[in-house]
Amino acid sequence: MSSLSPLVAPEAPVGRADEIVQRITEAIHLGLLDDGERLPVEVDLAAQFGVAPMTVREALATLREQELVETRRGRSGGSFVRRPAGPPVDQLAARLSAMSASDLRDLFDEHTAIAGQAARLAAERAAPYVVRRLFAFTDQLDSATTLGDRIRADSRFHIEVAVASQSARLARREANLQAEVAGLIWLPIGPPIDVGAYVEELHAIAAAVAAENPLEARRLAEDHVMGQLPRLTSVHLDLTTQESAG
After folding, report:
1. What share of the chain is helix, strand, coil (3-state, %, to 5)?
2. Residues in domain HTH gntR-type (predicted)?
């Protein structure tokens, strides 16, 4: 592989090694980078992230320590993705508890706007093969048996809707938002998500896109995203309450 997905590569230089680590880590957990996938060489990675090769080298060292990347020597060597069985639940819970209630609301306000507009444009522009991919991701979510598989299927659905909008900026923004929200939404804390109802909502969005109904697609996408906020707000309150009591 010569380059990262354009959804992973930033629009502007990302700066420090830890920011590169975060971006690649999120891409691995979302399934934007496949298990066993070979990363570009350090010089190419540095060019894509707009940093010095030394910064990339430091980031790769951290990823190896976290066992998210494996480096192999030899002619067919390089740095290869090692996707973990599940997401880092403790880290996600800590990130959620560190947010304020207004930060959480703002995050979902932005995601609602991006997802809604992406769904509207997808209904106007999506090619038939892209629509089939949307339904495939809803099927994957419905049949997923692990937390990691659910997060990846859910994220790929939303990103695919944005890709179907044929707006590169919306697709990149949705990918960035999925990196922020997907793991939080599926945190196995508090009342469990009704997976069946969740899948039905995604299926309805895909059906509206397939029917070329932009207003319905937008409404359904906005309702779906904002519908996750009450549960996550409750989980956030429980986590912060536990921290205060501790």
Report:
1. 70, 5, 30
2. 14-84
Task: Tell me the torsion sign for CA atoms 97, 99, 100, 103.
Answer: negative
Report the number of secondary-structure helices (H) and strands (E) in the chain.
Answer: 11, 2
Structure tokens at 141: 């979510």
Tokens of 134: 């949307």
Residue 226 has pLDDT above 90, yes or no: yes
Are 198 and 190 within 8 A, CB to CB? no
Q: What is the average pLDDT across 85-108?
A: 91
Provide the pLDDT confidence category of residue 211 given band limits of 50, 70 and 90.
very high
In this predicted model, which residue has the larger pLDDT, 185 or 25? 185
DSSP 145: -
**Last residue of some domain: 81, 107, 138?**
81
Instruction: In whole angstroms, give the CA distance from residue 73 to residue 156.
Output: 32
- Looking at the structure, do residues 151 and 222 belong to the same domain, yes or no? yes
Q: Which domain holds residue 168?
A: 89-244
Residue with tokens 């956030």: 236
Confidence bin at 102 (pLDDT 50/70/90) = very high
| Residue at a domain's end among 60, 81, 102 | 81
